Amino acid sequence: MSSPPRPSLNALRAFEMVARKGTFGEAADALSVTHGAISRHIRTLEDVLGVVLLTRNAHGTKLTPEGARLAAGLGRAFNLIQQSIDEVRPQPLELSCSASIMMHWLLPRLAGLHSNFPTMELGLRTGHGPIDFAQDGVSVAIRLESIAPPPGIAPIPLANEWIGAICSPDYLAASGVQQISDLSGKKLLATKTRPHAWKEWYSALQMTMPDSLELEYFEHFYLLIQAAKVGLGFACVPRMLVQAELESGALVAPFGCVEGPEKLVLWISPNARARADTADLVKWVVEEMAAE
Q1: What distance in Å separates the CA atoms of residue 106 and residue 109, rounded to the nearest whole number?
Q2: Domain shared by 81 and 17, yes or no
Q3: Which of the pair, 141 or 185, is modelled with greater confidence?
Q4: Distance between CA atoms of 154 and 225, rounded to whole angstroms?
Q5: How many angstroms separate the CA atoms of 47 and 53, rounded?
């Protein structure tokens, strides 16, 4: 009696990617193949297995119960394959953090890292949201504690975030602001990536943010900080992003900084956890954060 035909690895990979991404188009882009190739692989796989694995609608695809079971098993299998490959062919470490942390905290310290670990190969990648370690190739990620970590990842605490109202010295002198209540009617700057920063600052001071305050928004913290430096108004930012400017006098925090609600944590990819250079990188990040 002949054994039943086995599905091809390409067909299984195509189906697992569709299940992961949710659409044929995104799966095709991820695998660098055509939409038609994905469709043919799925059709062939369903013919070989004799079951319907997914249905398509206007919003994408929906897994059948059989498809969901197969996708879960394939996800584990492909992750194991990737982990096995990485174990025998280590790649340079990839550190992911927000663009603002990279520009204002990491890059100024990078020479020190290279001095301490001259043979370490480190790639940098910007990002501030969730991560799929198996798909994205990231080794270590700095994230806010409020962001859910990937399944099975235990976040390593790094630092509590301190926040403050900052501006240029010239703007402060011209504004006449001497106490927090004087901020009413002044130009307050905020970022779309942290729209509630001012409210969090007032709350940390055990004060209520006045409803009359009007905010002007910028896309990212690094644009917000630059706007404050050139005298466009008061900005509410994490201290770690402006520590150098505060020390040099390019910016001032007239009311000091206060511990805010956010905390920074570190995520480590399972594939990178056993590497010696990962341990060196993690130790360096933890120590640098503790020195803030």
Answers
A1: 5
A2: yes
A3: 141
A4: 32
A5: 10
